[in-house]
Structure to design on (241 residues):
């Protein structure tokens, strides 16, 4: 299982939210590049980055900092937030992101996902399933699509998607543990690689996700709050590729 420490960007700062609520935004680290290099020093090979401004209003004000991480950190960057169209997708991929994460657009404009797979292959794209009470949320988690998350996952698999990033919004930033039941249901529903996001808090969480056979786990607030040692998490997860 790969471990993906997370950097969320807003207004050029490294921040975290609680349950996706923009009113709870707070800075958690200094510069993005400095933070990413610390991840690399701990043995991480990937970093999960989210452009929160892009996700909410489509403005890429964080791209200079994100581009520094892509080009100077030595990490593979999985980047989401604000990929709403094919031009947005091209910008992210041509900037050097190893994997583009399509969230809301996978619901509203699934042809963006089709284009990514046709142009670069399924390994360069992931679909983010941001879930609250079993329903997929869009627009920076602020809108309810009405779609059942398992039905949506099946639709994406049928389109050729191989990697799904599942976020339980209720657990995100809460240090409450992952949503194991929903993750297990997702494993039953599709054959995609699944990345767990939201609530990963302790080393035991990492071990349990690994033993479930998940492809990856995103570590956010637990790193910044000090409840999880990244180097230990990487070691427990196994080979990072």
């Amino acid at each position: 299982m790969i471990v993906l420490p997370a950097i969320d960007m807003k207004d050029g700062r490294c921040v975290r939210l609680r349950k996706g609520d923009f009113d709870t935004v707070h800075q958690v680290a200094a510069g993005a590049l400095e933070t990413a290099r610390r991840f690399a020093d701990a043995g991480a090979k990937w970093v999960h980055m989210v452009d929160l401004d892009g996700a909410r209003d489509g403005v890429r004000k964080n791209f200079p900092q994100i581009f520094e991480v892509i080009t100077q950190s030595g990490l593979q960057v999985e980047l989401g937030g604000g990929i709403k169209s094919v031009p947005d997708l091209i910008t992210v991929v041509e900037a050097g992101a190893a994997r583009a994460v399509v969230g809301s657009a996978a619901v509203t404009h699934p042809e963006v996902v089709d284009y990514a797979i046709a142009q670069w292959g399924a390994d360069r794209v992931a679909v983010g399933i941001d879930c609250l009470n079993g329903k997929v949320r869009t627009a920076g988690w602020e809108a309810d699509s009405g779609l059942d998350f398992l039905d949506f996952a099946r639709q994406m698999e049928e389109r050729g998607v191989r990697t799904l990033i599942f976020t339980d919004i209720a657990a995100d930033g809460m240090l409450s543990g992952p949503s194991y039941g929903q993750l297990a249901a997702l494993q039953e529903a599709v054959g995609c690689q699944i990345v767990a996001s939201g609530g990963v808090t302790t080393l035991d969480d990492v071990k349990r996700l690994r033993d479930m056979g998940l492809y990856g786990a995103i570590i956010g607030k637990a790193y910044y709050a000090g409840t999880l040692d990244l180097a230990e998490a990487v070691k427990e997860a196994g080979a990072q590729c």
